[in-house]
Amino acid sequence: MIAVASPNIAFIKYWGKLDAQRDEDRNLATNPSFSLTLSKAQTRADVRRIKGDAHEILINEQAASAKDVAKISEHVTRVERALGHPAGHYRIETGNNFPAGAGIASSASAYAALSLALAGELVGEREAERFLGDRNAELSALARRGSGSAGRSVAGPYMRWDGAHATRFDSDWRLRDTILILSREHKAVPSSEGHKLVRTSPHFAARLGKVPERLAKVERAIRHRDLPSLGRVIEEEALELHRIARSGTPPVDYLLPETRRVLEAIEKLGHRNFFFTLDAGPNVHLISETSIAHEIEPLLARLGVQAEIWEDQAGDGPRLIK
Ligand code: DP6
User: Fold this and answer.
1) Which of 120, 178, 256, 301 has its CA 20 to 30 A from that of 319?
2) pTM
3) Does the beta carbon of 78 sit less than 6 angstroms from any atom of ligand 1?
């Protein structure tokens, strides 16, 4: 079975996990989060049962590393168990249509696509469609156990994740995400490590208290299509994530000098029809209603900052191909 899923960009961030004793509790977040599911960037996962005695796993046409084989095999077992199926072996091919290391969270789309394709291979095509309908929460909880943010890539255009799974937040406001790729280097500290360090920051406890109000503001802004109100909250959230990372022990700075220059220049603009957010990396995501590349290119040129631009927009979540 083949499934295609897109990454998501968080407006309210998942940054910090609860301790887990059992695999069922893996990647439960310390706070609710909220995201926009993208559409252009996609991971395609093709999963076929095979007769051999081991999985065959290819990522972007290359044999997967031992580490990736271990993580994906663990996820396969997790999905088989959850759906009450005996262990089997599979040929698994996954591929992205977007550049690796571009600050687009590929683990979210990868685990969403893999979970859906595998579930489809186990339960059959007709039943598999239910994972995009009345069984979507189950798919979300499974994808989440692979990578937390993947639990929000199982539907769209907006997802609210609280507890075991994410739920669709309905709206036909089609926001855009223009990603300024300032670096493609892999980050020195993966987000799984960043999640563990949050408690060492003196700002973390206060953040948890602020999230419910911010979440309510995001939902209200989306209902009213109020971009400036949404923008204020997402910028506050993004800066807070980085403040927490920088003030932990050891401190982690995910930003580059270029990121700071771009953010400063954006903040100085008088009127803006776009607002920024950041993940645990140096690339800048700009959220807007209309296409803004033509406004951003001269700004980057003026700053002397080189960046590739990836223009994406709201999507409706994964689909099954066959
Ligand atoms: C900064 O989902 O990548 O992008 O659960 O360890 O796989 P794991 O972490 P991951 O964390 C994403 C963190 C973030 C914010 C967000 O997407 O909400």
Assistant:
1) 178
2) 0.97
3) no
C-beta separation of 140 from 115 below 8 A: no
The DSSP call for residue 56 is E
Specify whether the backbone of 101 is left (phi greater than 0), alpha (psi in -120 to 50) or beta: left
State in Å: Cα 179 to ligand 1 middle: 17
Q: With DSSP H G I counted as helix, E B as strand and the rest as coil, what are the percentages for the chain, rounded to 5?
A: 40, 25, 35
Contact assessment for residue 27 and residue 148, using Cβ atoms and an 8 Å cutoff: yes
Q: How many helices (H) and strands (E) does the chain have?
A: 9, 14
Q: Specify whether the CB–CB gap between 112 and 154 falls below 8 A.
A: yes
Within 10 angstroms of residue 25's Cβ, the number of other Cβ atoms is 13
**Ligand 1 centroid to 198 CA: how many Å?**
13
Enumerate the H helices of 158-310 as residue ranges: 191-197, 204-223, 227-246, 257-268, 293-303
| Residue whose pair of structure tokens reads 């971009």 in the numeric block | 227
Q: Which atom of ligand 1 lies nearest, measured to the CA of 280?
A: 1
Which pLDDT band, with edges at 50, 70 and 90, does 101 fall under? low
pLDDT score at 102? 65
- Beta pairing, strands 62-63 & 89-96: unpaired
The predicted-structure confidence for 234-247, as pLDDT tens digits, reads as follows 999 999 999 999 99
Classify residue 291 by its DSSP letter.
-
Length of the chain: 322
Evaluate: CB of 234 within 6 angstroms of ligand 1: no
- Decide if 4 contacts 113 (C-beta within 8 A): yes
How many angstroms is it from 221 CA to the middle of ligand 1? Answer: 23
- State the greatest distance between any 2 C-alpha atoms of the chain, in Å, as a whole number: 63
